[in-house]
Amino acid sequence: MDRHTPQQRHKNMAAVRSKNTKPEILVRKFLWSRGFRYRLNNPRLPGHPDIVLRKYRTCVFINGCFWHGHDGCKYSQLPKTNTEFWQKKIEKNKERDKEEQVKLAKMGWHCITVWECELKADKREKTLESLAFTLNHIFLQDHTVTYRKIEEEGNLEMAAEPTNESH
């Protein structure tokens, strides 16, 4: 049984935002303070990622555990009323999320999902530091230089070139 009246529940659900949520703002402030520069909600990319870091070819999705069906998370439990509706809705959201990330990957983008529960006070620092580490790892991986030996009349020289032509 729902603790709220239908009017209260409607008001609560209507107040849920899709942009500028508290978890998004936490991640954005952290990234900015660490020198990462980004764009928000790029409409040209599938799924309209919450944060787009072009330099890193990375999209960050900051997902609410309930709305995106975070498996095994206590914050993703279905309501006791209208359960079938919510189950279908959340399954559709999960399927759409997967499809959008597959499209982005085919376009050469990396995707990172940060869950709302990972930004709770007890896990926040570890999550954000891990995000920064992952972004730096992606950058280094995508911008690795390969060296090849060039022999010219007994002289040995080195030539460097990027491994990924798209950058």
Structure explained in plain terms:
The protein has helices at 6-14, 22-33, 83-106, 124-142, and strands at 39-40, 51-53, 58-63, 110-115, 145-152, 155-162. The chain has one domain (9-138): Endonuclease, Chain A, CATH 3.40.960. The model has no long low-confidence stretch (mean pLDDT 86). The chain starts with 5 loop residues before the first helix and ends in a 5-residue tail after the last strand. It has 167 residues and is an alpha+beta fold. The radius of gyration is 21 Å and the shape is elongated. Strand 5 and strand 6 form a beta hairpin. The chain is built from 4 helices and 6 strands, in the order ααβββαβαββ. Strands 1-2-3-4 form a 4-stranded mixed sheet, sandwiched between helices. Strands 5-6 form a two-stranded antiparallel ribbon.
In terms of topology, how is this protein built?
Blueprint: H1 6-14, H2 22-33, E1 39-40, E2 51-53, E3 58-63, H3 83-106, E4 110-115, H4 124-142, E5 145-152, E6 155-162
Parallel strand pairs: 3-4
Antiparallel strand pairs: 1-2, 2-3, 5-6
Protein name: T/G mismatch-specific endonuclease
Family: Belongs to the Vsr family.
Keywords: DNA damage, DNA repair, Endonuclease, Hydrolase, Nuclease
